[in-house]
Specification:
Two copies of one chain form a homodimer. Helix content of chain A is 41%, strand content 17%. The first copy, chain A, is of the alpha/beta class and 337 residues long. Chain A has a seven-stranded parallel sheet, with helices on both faces. Chain A has a two-stranded parallel ribbon with strand order 7-9. A two-stranded parallel sheet of chain A has the order 8-11. The radius of gyration of chain A is 19 Å and the shape is globular. Chains A and B meet through helix 4, helix 5 and helix 6 of A and helix 4, helix 5 and helix 6 of B.
Chain lengths: 337, 337
């Protein structure tokens, strides 16, 4: 039996597809675009079997084709518009169409295909205003006050799938993801099909490292609730396979203090890529590295560990080494493509 | 200058249009259907001027026609699908299309027309799981955990208009309405164009009272956070006119204990409508009056009073008398039509 991954050519989706392919599983990857060639080559070297189906999440016929490309036992739904302020101001309805109506359409297609288990990627962004208050964010206790349209659609999709799971008797879990760092992030703004408006600072630095050049960092570091992207892929597969889903929502992040991580990542890159230099911007100078938000508080990761025994990598040096290995092997081509 | 009321033929909308017409104002009522004849006759007897424009909220051209039917200074947005479980299970996407994408389209149309002030009707239903916990519900402090799709769309629309107001520099306030009792409620399930699946017990009883007959009540009374519908109309007009909107969200209800209200309302109807009888169902008997939800906790109504000096009617006898007057005069025809 196969797992269907929507958004399989995107940042989260590629990590899920890779985790499945690495475990020798059969995967149907559904996306508007086929996997980028660099990723396709990597995936083809792994023991699993990946079928790629291109189509629009809002096209019921395309979804049905994906559900019939292999015998599907569960879905990991990562397809989304990850919108920034410009896209939200210029085309707000589209963000809702894809992120909420698209999720409804996916559940309808799963129901038609008799597939009962769907894992939906939500986002820590859903906490919204609560992200900038002190204290750990807990799934039920922390008020969910989304500020951006992206975050609003993520919370709306959570509550929607919860309701439809009840009405349609499906098994659904939503994961509020921390901010991913690691393999397979692309600068969406540079791709015609890009629907990911944010490009994280670790990847920005990796880009400069493989190209050779100087990173000029903002004077003040900004930390987020980061999590290694390959861990997110593994966790989503684990939930797709889990014998039961005791909770409807799980925070999914590393749950560790990331203070000083950008400086540490620069040192790792500098040691591996001799052409890479980095310094802090002078007063008045415009940095060429930017942070995509303010610092955020951390999510509690207790529930996912208690229910499913899942713990993400928490050793920052190990994360940096794993990511730097990937940057050296795959990232050289990936970031240039 | 005129006020545009979307959903002007619906329950909340007719109360807003009536409040405006009563105050001698100019109104553009926009709805999929023209106002029901009974309402049109009533409205024509009032000093204001009501222009009716029929069109679909999802049709940008129809919205533009509404904005050009008179010089609009503000919008009261009440158009929505008030969905029950059957509709949510059979056509979930439609609930989102109308309640969220429709709200985005309305704000876009307001922006095109240069109209800056929009008052959006949300619902106490948005509090969801919190409604069934003890304690007053406060706009910011109480976790918003919508359970139904209707409630999810209402919260999503709130956060969406807040975001768009920030991006587009508009003045927007959302009102979380208590459960309306009073004039202009229709049993949506009996109308082809009905998009209101719930029909409250006070109106169910008024229907039986004007037709003459016996109401068989459930053994256990269920109270809600009720508010007189004409008050909701007045409050929404007040917010459309308010010099400023210090908060983005306001609870709007009576904020009083309604224990025993169904029994009291039956007595008022019995005194005025000799053909009306009422009793409690015997064990095993199916009542012909039903409650549309479980008992709910109350919303705090302090913010609306503090910011805008608005207090809804809190004298239950006065509400019953006002509603019974309407039932005797207009309701006789309204409920039969």
């Amino acid at each position: 039996m196969a797992i269907l991954v929507t958004g399989g050519s995107g940042y989260v989706g590629l990590n899920v597809v890779e985790a499945l392919a690495r475990a020798g599983r059969e995967v149907v990857s559904f996306d508007m675009t086929l996997p980028p060639p660099v990723a396709a080559v990597e995936l083809s070297s792994l023991p699993g079997r990946v079928h790629s189906v291109d189509g629009d999440l809002l096209d019921a016929g395309a979804l049905d084709r994906a559900f019939h490309a292999a015998p599907i036992e569960a879905v990991v739904h990562t397809a989304a518009v990850t919108s920034g302020p410009a896209r939200e101001a210029s085309d707000p309805a589209r963000v809702f169409q894809v992120n909420v109506i698209g999720t409804i359409g996916l559940l309808e297609a799963a129901r038609r295909a008799g597939v009962n288990r769907v894992v939906v990627t939500s986002s820590g962004a859903a906490y919204g205003e609560s992200l900038y208050r002190p204290g750990l964010m807990e799934e039920d206790a922390t008020p969910v006050l989304p500020t951006t349209l992206y975050a609003t659609t993520k919370y709306a999709a959570e509550r929607t799938v919860r309701r439809l799971a009840e009405l349609w008797r499906m098994e659904v879990a939503c994961t509020r993801l921390g901010t991913l760092i690691g393999p397979w992030e692309r600068d969406g703004s540079s791709h015609a099909q890009g629907v990911r408006d944010n490009f994280g600072p670790h990847s920005q630095l990796a880009c400069i490292a493989v190209a050779g050049g100087e990173a000029v960092l903002p004077a003040e570091e900004c930390t987020r609730d980061w999590v290694y992207s390959a861990d997110v892929g593994r966790a989503l597969v684990m939930l797709a396979d889990a014998p039961s889903l005791p909770h409807a929502v799980y925070n999914l992040s590393a749950g560790i203090d990331w203070t000083g991580d950008i400086a540490a990542w620069c040192e790792v890159l500098a040691a591996r890529f001799p052409g890479f230099r980095h310094r802090t911007a002078q007063p008045g100078e415009v940095p060429n590295i930017h942070y995509t938000d303010r610092a955020r508080s951390l999510m509690s990761v207790q529930r996912l560990e208690a229910d499913h025994g899942f713990v993400a990598m928490r050793d920052r040096a190990a994360i940096h080494n794993a990511f730097a290995d990937w940057v050296g092997q795959v990232g050289r081509v990936w970031y240039a493509s």
